């Protein structure tokens, strides 16, 4: 199965970093979050990626064009004009980088990569800023089993602020990251049939609006519940928390 990654947005809520580079290239532990996402899929055996480019997309192209060079020892023979690569133990990825327009919405980006998908075959879709330990093999099997057009991973996000449990004016319990209000949200890990592209009108279509709403209305959208780790890197605070998790050696998506 191929994996489509939406990597073209502006990332305005993390502008401290995104004014210099596209959001998916913001680093966690010295690697772009895009690399972390792709590694998650690769660990489950999915190595064929289609990356939807937009804002500063050339930086993502340059990263992958020079990936082997930056991750291997090299001998440069200036007389022959040749480069010899040593210890090229790199990821077995095939990466198709597609210019989908700087102002194109999420649905429009997906529509623009239709020609790179396998006819009649389901594919993954995810965002370029979300990390999880979701079981992608189980997600794919769940999708194939129910026969509907689309599957969305449903997650319960943590609360954004520390919570207090009080007895009068005495704090009995403090929780830094309690669960939210038990409402499930779109976790951003989809499996889709190519037929969903017919629900996208063009570049101005937001995937999360008419297409997803229509799939739900028509009984063609199933939810795969994930109760494990999930986090979206929306702000600098989110980025710092993910960085700390990675540095601890206990990052759930490792």
Largest sheet descriptor: 7 strands, mixed
Which strand order do you get reading across the main beta sheet? 7-4-1-8-13-10-14
- Mean of pLDDT: 91
Order of helices and strands: EHEEHEHHEEEHEEHEEEEHEEH
Question: Structural class of the secondary structure composition?
Answer: alpha/beta
Low-pLDDT segments:
none
Provide the descriptors you would attach to this structure in a database record.
globular, 26% helix, single chain, 7-stranded mixed sheet, alpha/beta
In short:
The chain is an alpha/beta fold and 254 residues long. Helix content is 26%, strand content 29%. It is globular and about 65 Å long.
Structure write-up:
This protein has helices at 15-18, 33-43, 57-65, 67-70, 106-112, 136-146, 210-217, 236-248; strands at residues 2-7, 27-28, 31-32, 48-53, 73-77, 82-86, 94-99, 123-127, 130-132, 150-155, 163-167, 170-175, 185-192, 221-225, 230-232. The chain is α/β, with parallel strands linked by helices and 254 residues long. It has a seven-stranded mixed β-sheet, sandwiched between helices. The two termini are 22 Å apart. The mean pLDDT is 91.
Furnish the topology, listing elements before pairings.
Blueprint: E1 2-7, H1 15-18, E2 27-28, E3 31-32, H2 33-43, E4 48-53, H3 57-65, H4 67-70, E5 73-77, E6 82-86, E7 94-99, H5 106-112, E8 123-127, E9 130-132, H6 136-146, E10 150-155, E11 163-167, E12 170-175, E13 185-192, H7 210-217, E14 221-225, E15 230-232, H8 236-248
Parallel strand pairs: 1-4, 1-8, 4-7, 10-14
Antiparallel strand pairs: 2-3, 5-6, 8-13, 9-15, 10-13, 11-12
């Amino acid at each position: 199965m191929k994996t489509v990654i939406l990597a073209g947005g502006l990332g305005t809520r993390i502008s401290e970093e995104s004014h210099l580079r596209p959001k998916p290239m913001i680093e966690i532990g010295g690697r772009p979050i895009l690399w972390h996402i792709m590694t998650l899929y690769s660990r489950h055996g999915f190595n064929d990626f289609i990356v939807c480019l937009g804002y500063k997309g050339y930086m993502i192209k340059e990263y992958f064009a020079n990936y082997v060079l930056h991750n291997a020892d090299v001998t440069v023979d200036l007389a022959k004009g040749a480069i010899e690569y040593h210890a090229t133990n790199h990821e077995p990825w095939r990466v198709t980088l597609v210019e989908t327009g700087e102002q194109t919405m999420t649905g429009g980006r997906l529509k623009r990569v239709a020609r790179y998908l396998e006819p009649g075959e389901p594919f993954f879709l995810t965002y370029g800023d979300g990390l999880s330990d979701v079981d992608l093999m189980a997600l794919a099997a769940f999708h194939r089993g129910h026969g509907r057009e689309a599957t969305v991973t449903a997650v319960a996000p943590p609360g954004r602020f520390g919570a207090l449990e009080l007895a009068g004016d005495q704090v009995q319990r403090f929780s830094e990251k309690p669960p939210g209000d038990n409402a499930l949200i779109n976790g951003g890990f989809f499996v889709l049939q190519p037929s969903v592209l017919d629900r996208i009108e063009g570049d101005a279509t937001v995937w999360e609006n008419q297409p997803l709403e229509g799939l739900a209305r028509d009984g063609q959208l199933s939810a795969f519940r994930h109760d494990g780790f999930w986090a979206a890197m929306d702000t600098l605070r989110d980025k710092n928390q993910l960085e700390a998790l990675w540095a601890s050696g206990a990052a759930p998506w490792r």
